[in-house]
Amino acid sequence: MSETRGILRPGETVWTVAQAPRAAALIDAAATFGAMRAAMRAARTRILVVGWDIDSRTPLVGDEYDPADGLPRELGPFLRALVARRPRLRVDLLLWDYALLYGLERELLPEVKLDWSMPRRIRARLDDVLPIGASHHQKIVVVDGALAFCGGLDLAIRRWDTRAHALDDPRRRDPDGAPYRPFHDAQMMVDGEAAAALSALAEARWRQAEGGYAAAPKLRRGKGSVLRGRVAEKAPDLWPAEIVPDFRDVGVGIARTRPAFASAPAIREVEALYEASVAAAERTIYIENQFLTRERIARALIARMREVPGLEVLLVGPNVHQSWLEEHAMNAGRRRFVTLLREAGLSDRARLVHPALPDDPTGEGVMVHAKLMFVDDRLLRIGSANLNNRSMGLDSECDLAIEAHTDEERAAIARIRDGLVAEHAGVAPERVGAAIAREGSLLAALDTLPQEGRHLAPIALAPAEGGELARRIGEIADPETPIATPAFGAEMFAGQPAQRSLLRTLKLVLAALAVAAVVALWRFSPAADLTDPAALVARLEALGAGPFAPLLVVLAFVVGGLVVFPVTVLITVTGMMFAPVTAIAVATTGVMLSAALMYAIGRAVGRGALERRMGRRTRAVSKALADSGIIAVAALRMLPVAPFSVVNLVVGASRIGIADYLAGTLVGMAPGLVMLTLLGTRLAEVLASPDPWALALLGIAVLAWLALSVGMQVLVYRIKRKRRAARSA
Fold this sequence. Notes:
Blueprint: E1 16-27, H1 29-41, E2 46-51, H2 75-85, E3 90-96, H3 110-116, E4 122-127, E5 140-143, E6 147-151, E7 183-184, E8 186-191, H4 192-211, E9 247-258, E10 267-268, H5 269-280, E11 284-288, H6 295-307, E12 312-316, H7 324-343, E13 350-356, E14 367-368, E15 372-375, E16 379-383, H8 389-393, E17 397-403, H9 407-425, H10 429-439, H11 442-448, E18 455-458, H12 468-477, H13 487-492, H14 506-523, H15 533-543, H16 549-562, H17 567-577, H18 580-605, H19 607-614, H20 616-637, H21 644-652, H22 658-681, H23 683-688, H24 692-728
Parallel strand pairs: 2-3, 3-4, 7-14, 11-12, 12-13
Antiparallel strand pairs: 1-8, 1-9, 2-5, 5-6, 6-8, 9-10, 9-17, 11-15, 13-18, 15-16, 16-17
């Protein structure tokens, strides 16, 4: 590949190349969170955060850990204090509407903590505008549209760490006070047009989550001022004073992954950029990544290493993967990735290593979560994309890349790379640079650095276990394209999500105003603390302790359904108030009565009125439900299509009968009811000091949910396939 053509090609390997007056690589969370905190403190109008996870308990602090600015340490209280100081400041938080599989790793009821219990100028949304099986994985923070962060770090717990990665750092604790392993990640900070481009990207994602799958923002492509007119002439200077830019007046490429969904086509710039970068390498490829399963990239490395005999590859990753699923999916894929290199006879020029720590009894070393790449001293790339199948085509991703065109830019890229090697090796960056210059090889330079204490140690990959089973698990956990859904699902999700529009009849206007007034009463008034499960328990017990408590809670379900109150909160609260058997019985009764009432309202309003409001999507849902009956309703309950009350309303106006509807609701809600009531019953024990019995019950509920969810969807697919075959016979 010629130098003149370049690696960053708008419309091919990147979405656009935008100019940044300043850009800096922020290594590890202390540097990143400290810079974010400084920028947010200076914000005047808007902070926009999009991520895979956002946790209100995240310590948003730098190396000092104890902030000297007089504001709270944790993200949620910090944002509260910030908007109290800034009357015009708005904060928008968008996080993935995560799968149940991750429920125990995250903050319980994030919408309650990040939205309903916050001041009205702090809004939180759950992003579910994705195909089945996909996740929203971008990590972007934009402040006033003028400064932006993008990389591998979420504003989440168990991320904060310094570049020292001390094994016994007392500050590295989760909200329960439990220590967690040293954690390594990276982010890039940019301003100017590059920040404006990321702002446009994040804003589009926010709009999609709020009400429609909007097309990607259109930018005029080409080098230079691709966003001229977007950056205000007097944009605020939010660059933190303590951060020295690594680059000045540099072009920043933005590469994305987005799966095809609704009417929007797939975007695969992330993979195209990987392939172009590998094809341009001449001496050294340095990659840090949590996962290595994309065999297409392994073959690209093999092809280029055969073309260029002197090319070396250093792969830095975590020594072990933490969960059973990761071991049998991601680690098995990593074994295949490395096996391809070994079978090609390239083991002497390609190494897989991890950052080892001194006196580490587990031998795990530092958890590598970074997603970055260096190609010679020509390209630096930092982003959210793992080197796995999901990040190439299924999950939403965003990577930033800088291609050097001057000696200063090449020197900066080499300096950042040498600094990372030095961090992992426990030596000064100058020593790494001198060793590379002396040896003429990164791998040879590593051999001259200390091989004990902090150092980059080989990852010993045991022979793959499970064979075909491991590969099948990998196909499920790490797919490249959306998971196939039952036929009824394809009909339900066809077309774009319903768009907001003016209500067309006075009847619907009055109904909407009435609901809005009731919702506003408990959301924006002092009654807003009702969405806190602990506060809700106290109020319900005060109103009706003793034998009338179950009746009162059932009534709360019915009223909650009318005001679109989150049913998950009510189920969890029920588990906190009663013994498990009683809690399940009360919650089930409340859910079924609420569902029946909303169904009756939907039937009274009529399909015609709902179709005029929501369009052909309602007709598709109604037809799909009528065709599949109980099974369709049960599976629908397991998919995050819409709030519980909204689904009840739409189904009531559909062609399905009340008996099928109630039976399907009972089957579909049963696993969730059991899980959430058990969670409520054992909440204190699980969060404070989990005992084996509580964890076992919780694990059984999760497994039951997953098994029934998958089994129900497979069953629906087979039934629909048989019906189609019978009709065509």
